[in-house]
């Protein structure tokens, strides 16, 4: 397998209680690519992200992540090479955790600081990442006192703490107000355009949340791929109409997308 391949699914399906959560998905993500995974509720986006995170095995087909085949590798070791931000993770961080500690604990793949010891340089890196995402001034607050938008940014800083080879973001802009969303989209755009940033997969329901600099898109509907490839080829009215099951018009301006019912 090419060393540049970060994720490779071949005819992967995930079946639970007789239902296909994903059906026959083949997908490849390369080192320098930034992917958006789009689709309606229940389309299988989180299931796909969980495969890419090594948190789930396919029922049939094969999944390679960072050149390791799921089912034949130590997933705990693999997970240390992947940065992930999900709503589920946010819920697991104790409210009384210091914000900078919520970032640092990623180095141990744990939440809730206990007896781990951290180097000074870890703490500096944690603070620098918080600063990069505009929440540096909150480093010494407790996680429970942060707004939704601030938490999302802290979680992305945490996901980057271990200098991962793959970054997975599940609905990073969900629940944010317009200003917070625009701020986050701008920061993710800066990250996407950084050639040293890891391969990235961002899951969202909304084309408005696609940061400029993202290169590829995969559209899902009911567990199956509707379209995948270069962002500009995939984010079209036709494809989105198929994915969301209603006639949609898509417009692109200054690298951003908007969609509305036709
Ligand atoms: N263990 C399970 N058994 C049966 N069905 C399941 C199971 N886990 C998830 N599902 C179903 O699989 C489908 C895909 O779920 P998934 O969370 O991947 O979708 P999603 O695209 O991320 O949805 P959303 O946008 O609402 O978060 C959903 O219909 C969900 O109800």
Description:
- The protein has 262 residues and is of the alpha/beta class.
- The protein has a domain of 77 residues.
- The chain has 9 helices and 12 strands.
- The strands form 3 sheets. It has a 6-stranded mixed β-sheet, sandwiched between helices. Strands 2-1-4-5 form a 4-stranded antiparallel β-sheet, with helices on one face.
- Strand 7, helix 7 and strand 8 form a beta-alpha-beta unit.
- The longest helix is centred in the last third of the chain and has 16 residues.
- It is globular and about 50 Å long.
- The protein starts with a strand and ends with a strand.
- The model has no long low-confidence stretch (mean pLDDT 92).
- Adenosine-5'-triphosphate (ATP) binds next to strand 2 and helix 1.
- This is Iron complex transport system ATP-binding protein.
- Keywords: ATP-binding, Nucleotide-binding.
- GO terms for molecular function: ATP binding; ATP hydrolysis activity.
Task: Give a short synopsis of this structure.
The chain is of the alpha/beta class and 262 residues long. 30% of the residues lie in helices and 29% in strands. It has helices at 45-52, 75-79, 87-92, 99-104, 120-132, 148-160, 178-193, 231-234, 237-244; strands spanning 5-16, 19-30, 34-38, 60-65, 68-69, 82-85, 166-170, 199-204, 216-221, 224-230, 248-253, 256-261.
